[in-house]
Amino acid sequence: MVEVNWKPKFIERYKQLTDIDKFLEYSLKPLTKTIRVNTIKCTVPEMRKRMKLTPIPWCKEGFGAEGYGLGNTKEHFLGYFYIQGAASMIPPVVLKPKEDDLVLDMCASPGSKTSQMAAMMGNKGLIVANDLTIDRMQPLTINLQRLGVANCVITRMEGAWFKGQLYDKILLDAPCSGIGTIRKSLKTIDMWNPNFSKMMAGIQRKLFDTAVGVLKEGGSIVYSTCTLEPEEDEGIVDYILSKHPEMKLEKIELDIKRGKPVEEFDGKEYTSEVKKCLRIWPHDNDTEGFFVSKFKKA
């Protein structure tokens, strides 16, 4: 087991939110290697013939794939699968894009969820995949090309600049403080600062306000993060419901173990509606930490 010097304020904060011993234990465990079969190029039965795979309950194209040098297999080079965290597969599954939808992926790089939605749409309809910097354009472009995604237009700009065009569905997998990704990157622990979460929450609110403005009536938004900070999760949900009465929160029904959504923390109270959201701790399903919520525009 890796030894880490946890910040006392971090420990004190997360003691209030979950079983701290299990959280710390699982945060330092290596992640199970998982893949998503890219049905644009390969069927699930065909991939199961090629590799020994363990199903992920909440995504029919998702599998555990231990014992392989996944990035060096011919199936990976050919784009038959994408190396993707099991929890990362949840937002597109919840959004449910269809083949005739116009979809906006506001923060798309490196393309894991964009390509997952493209496959769900049968490579039809249209996805606008946006991200901010040139550095993030490269992996997004390369991955979509390797996976054979053809129903996608890539844009590079501030997500908050979108206006005018109305979308059927929007995925806002927002930039965040990344506390759920400790298992992938231990530097997240050193970088943790509660003030950083406050800054990120400001960015998230701005992005979400924009998303509401470019969503069709009857359309859906999935807001997700890979952090476990209440201010960036339940706090954003509470903000949207109070500012945009036309947005209604939908309960996420999924075959997955989940943590209790946070209704009160650090002197702030959030609407009881947050019970409809999905808060996943690393020790719930042996994955990364994740938060997912789904809204519909009345």
What does this structure look like?
It is a single chain. This protein is an alpha/beta fold and 298 residues long. Helices cover 32% and strands 23% of the residues. It has eleven helices and 14 strands. The protein has helices at residues 8-15, 20-27, 44-50, 74-77, 90-95, 112-120, 134-146, 187-191, 194-213, 234-243, 282-285, and strands at residues 34-37, 54-56, 59-64, 81-83, 102-105, 126-131, 152-156, 167-173, 215-225, 247-250, 264-265, 268-269, 278-280, 290-297. The strands form three sheets. Strands 5, 6, 7, 8, 9, 10, 13 and 14 form an eight-stranded mixed sheet that branches. Strands 2-3-1-4 form a four-stranded antiparallel sheet, with no helix packed on it. Strands 11-12 form a two-stranded antiparallel sheet. A hairpin with a 2-residue loop joins strand 11 and strand 12. Helix 9 packs parallel to helix 10 (234-243). The longest helix has 20 residues, at 194-213. 44% of the residues are buried.
